[in-house]
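Friendly challenge for the regulars: who can give me the structure tokens for this chain first? No prize, just bragging rights.
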Amino acid sequence: MQAITFKIILMFVTATDSVAPSQMPSMPASQPSTTQQQPYPQSHANKQAQIILSEALRLVDALQYDQVIPLMDEILYLTNLTLEEKLQAYFLKGSALAIIGEPVKAERAFRFLLRASPKYELPNDISPKVSAVFRKVQVEEEATRHQLEKLERKKVVAEMQLQGSPPRDLVGGRPIFFQYALRDPRRAVQTFRLEYRKAGEKDFSSLALKPDDQGNWSCTIPAELTQNKDGMRIDYFLTTKDSLDENLLTIGNALNPQFLEIAPGTIESAMPLHKKTWFWILSSSVALGVIGGTGWYAYQQSIALPETDGKINIDK
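First reply, four minutes later:
Bragging rights claimed.
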């Protein structure tokens, strides 16, 4: 079947645009018409498709393109056809219609073809009449598909909800923790990212927010990036994206980011007292001083004791 179909396509490719359809009579009336029969099982439908394609090949050899069209309708009437068989039938029907000068009807066949297989590609060196009609439909279908995807995305975003607020009372030298609760009924979100930069910088850095079992998404800007001497500002925006890397629900954007004000501070100044190096140095010095002082006092007391013969007079 594939060899027959390829030969049919090849005949369409090599046909000249000036060929006019012949008025050769259609198939004899005695031949049974599949349009009057009930749906067939898979194997029978395949056999019928092969018979019809064989007849279509004979007509293509005779340049009877107008007679190919009803044969493709015969194939498309059959049930249990494979997707490939349907695509071949739509392609041959549209090609025949384009060649005989019926571009509007050809567009309809190509439209069915592209809705079943949006990435369908024409064979190389196809007739200009065929390719012109096909490309027109392809552009229209692509625009329609994008419009439908855009409308569907709006519906998804309308059902989403992001709860949470940016951190407050920020001090340099401390990490900044972001956490949001995301309502996503259709589970459309594939990535949730924080884009941030120090005010005045050109490029944004990116952090992925990770979800937990409760549906909370979080990430942390490291303390090393927040320490400053005179106060600073961080610009940021949040994006959620679907599997096609298209934006869903967002907060801010690169042109109009949100921002955080951060008070002066360093990592050292933000450390708890027991973690600071100078604290342990000072503590060690004090401890050594106490130990040394206690030892010196004990020594002084020992040399101040009176000499005896080992007896202590408890009456005094």
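DSSP finds eight helices and ten strands in the chain. The helical segments are 2-14, 42-61, 65-77, 83-99, 103-116, 128-159, 267-270, 277-304. Your move, everyone else.
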